[in-house]
Write a structure and sequence with these properties.
11 helices, mainly alpha, globular
Amino acid sequence: MGKGIRMVKGWHGWLGTFNGVVLITMAVLPLAALVVWALARRRRGSDVAALRMSLAEVGIVYGTVPWVWMIMLPGDQAGVVSGRVSLVPLRDLLTIVADGGPLTATVQVVGNLLVFAALGFFAPLRFAALASVPRILLLAAACSVLVEGAQYVLRLDRVSSVDDVLLNAAGAGLAALASRRWWRAADETPARRGEPAPAPAPGR
C-alpha cells in the first residue's frame, strides 16, 4: 500500500490513473458511511427502512462511479487515434483469451461484471419500478451503451465493444438476483409504496 501511495503523484496521478482512483475510493469510504447515516437520520419512518433506502442510494453512487471513472480514463493515444468499435459478440473475449491467457481474460471479465453490479444490486431496493431483473438488464445495458459511446466520441483510445455492454449488463443482472430476497422488504416501506411516512411520536 505504501509503495502504491508513493507512486501516485500530482493531480494526474490521483485522478487519471487506476491506482489513484482506487486510493480515492478507499479514502472516501468513511465519508460514504457518514452520508448513509446522515440520510437515514433525516428520513422519517422505521430505522431499518430508512437505513436500507439510504444505503441503497449511497451504494449505487459509491459502487458505480469509480468503475465508470476508470473505464473513462484516456489511453496513451487519446485524442490522436480515432474511436474504435467492435460489434461482433464474443470476438473481443476470444481475442483476450488467445493473447493474454485465461488469467487475463478472467480479470477482464470480472472487471466488466462489476461495473454496474452496485446499480443492479441496490437499484431494486430503492426504486420499486426497477424491482425486475429484465428491467435492470435493460438499464445496465443502456448505461453501458452510453459509456461505450462516450469513449468513442471522446476518442479516449479505447475500444467500444459490444462484449463490454453484454458483460456490464450481465453483472448488473447477477447482482440484482443476489439482492432479490430483500426486494419484498423494501416494497413494504411507505416511501416505496408512495405513501406518506408516519409522523414521529411526540416527545414526552
